[in-house]
Amino acid sequence: EAQVTQNPRYLITVTGKKLTVTCSQNMNHEYMSWYRQDPGLGLRQIYYSMNVEVTDKGDVPEGYKVSRKEKRNFPLILESPSPNQTSLYFCASSLTSGYLQETQYFGPGTRLLVL
Amino acid sequence: QKEVEQNSGPLSVPEGAIASLNCTYSDRGSQSFFWYRQYSGKSPELIMFIYSNGDKEDGRFTAQLNKASQYVSLLIRDSQPSDSATYLCAVNWRDTGTASKLTFGTGTRLQVTL
Q1: Least C-beta-crowded within 10 Å: which of A31, A50, B96, B113?
Q2: Contact B46/A41, CB-based, under 8 Å?
Q3: How far apart are CA A113 and CA A84, in angstroms?
Q4: What mean pLDDT is predicted for residues B62-72?
Q5: pLDDT band at A40 (very low <50, low <70, confident <90, very high)
Q6: Which chain A residues touch B if contact means CB-CB below 8 Å?
Q7: Is B106 within 8 Å of A101 when comparing Cβ atoms?
Q8: Nearest Cα residue to A82 out of A18, A6, A23, A1
Q9: B2: which chain A residues are within 8 Å (Cβ-Cβ)?
């Protein structure tokens, strides 16, 4: 089954404790992206990757890191989480990043609470 | 900053009626437009995309695009209680180089009443 998976689905942590949220897709997609969703602010892009070893900042990259060592995986790293990073996070992928962008497929989401 | 505007709602329509959801965008160069549906606590799922001016129909859903007015809408005919969700409008535009970006509106919450 074609899908985007994320782990963990729910996470409660404390300020400053490094964490990683994994994202994996099995559709051989080149383009992957991370979003956060907050009430009243909608989906905002954190980072994206056009292909292996190619990543770039989205609209709200502060406090986050990413890497793309393999085509299928795109982990999101919070080196020192803070309470303002409490949010619902989605990973998404699409075939390419062409201008008439193909459909983005979303993972199930990771709900993060930073105390 | 590219902007996509939607009325947050809730938009309440009776079962069987037509629901009309609207979206405006700021980037006149935007070329592709998407409607996603998101149930509470779930991930967005694509309903329709549209590239050309005019109407595009898929079952009970019709997307309408007017690039001159920078306006895109989604009509849902014969609304069902299962259509109750938040509908996200997304607009694609070219970023630096060859990358394109997708900007989402904050969504319109639709409630279909019995």
Answers
A1: B96
A2: no
A3: 9
A4: 95
A5: confident
A6: 33, 35, 40-45, 48, 50, 56, 58, 90, 97-101, 103-109
A7: no
A8: A18
A9: none
Q: Which of A45, A97, A103 sits opposite B49 (nearest CB)?
A: A103
Chain B residues with beta carbon closer than 8 angstroms to that of A98: 98, 100
What is the C-alpha separation between A75 and A40, in angstroms, rounded?
26
Strands across the sheet with A65-66, in order?
A4-7, A19-25, A76-78, A65-66
d(CA A34, CA A47): 6
Classify B70 in phi/psi space as left (phi over 0), alpha (psi -120 to 50) or beta.
Answer: left
pLDDT, mean over chain B: 91
Cα separation of A73 and B41, whole Å?
Answer: 23
Q: Could you tell me the pLDDT band of residue B31, with boundaries at 50, 70 and 90?
A: confident
Q: What span, in angstroms and rounded, lies between the C-alpha atoms of A100 and A68?
A: 23
Evaluated on CA atoms A71, A75, A76, A78, the torsion sign reads negative
Asked if the C-beta of B58 comes within 8 angstroms of chain A's C-beta atoms, the answer is no
Chain A: residue nearest B87 by CA? Answer: A42
**pLDDT over 90 at A101, yes or no:** no
Q: What does the pLDDT look like over A45-87, one tens digit per residue?
A: 999 998 999 999 988 999 999 999 999 999 999 999 999 999 9
